[in-house]
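tool=predict chain=A
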Amino acid sequence: MAEDAGSILETLDRAEDAFSGYPAGEPTYETGLNPEANQPPAIQLRKACRLLEACRTLREHNGYHTSVIEMSFAAIERTLEFYALLASNDTVNNFQNHKRAYDRAAALGVLTDETAHRLKTLYLDNRSAAYYRSTVATKGQAETMFALAVAMHDHVKRFQPAGIRMPV
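tool=predict ok
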């Protein structure tokens, strides 16, 4: 039986330690993030915001179109999940299926059924294709997906039906 390389095993040990408490002392968080803001809706919104910021950073370096597309789809889902968690009794565990965020957005009135269906179709037809395809993603695809993710994020943050107080 083959043995795994020592460098892999050493770094695997360190990675496992990094996720099992704080053996190296006080953890270091990203600047501007409050680790105490740990309510599920806030976590989903923070993920969406950070994904969009990562997209901006990658786009400034003129490329990484596949990553921008992937993160834009993820930012849209996290944004819709944020609202669903805020406006319903849903839990994060309800969102194990990528399609659920779109369906819940329509059910909760953030989007029309038609728009939610179009977004879900865009995801189903293109997300995996962009990620796994044998060719490369285009600049135009990355630009339009990023623009869509930003528009969705802004819309959901502004959306304020009666009885729902947005934390942002």
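The radius of gyration is 19 Å. The chain is about 60% helix and 0% strand.
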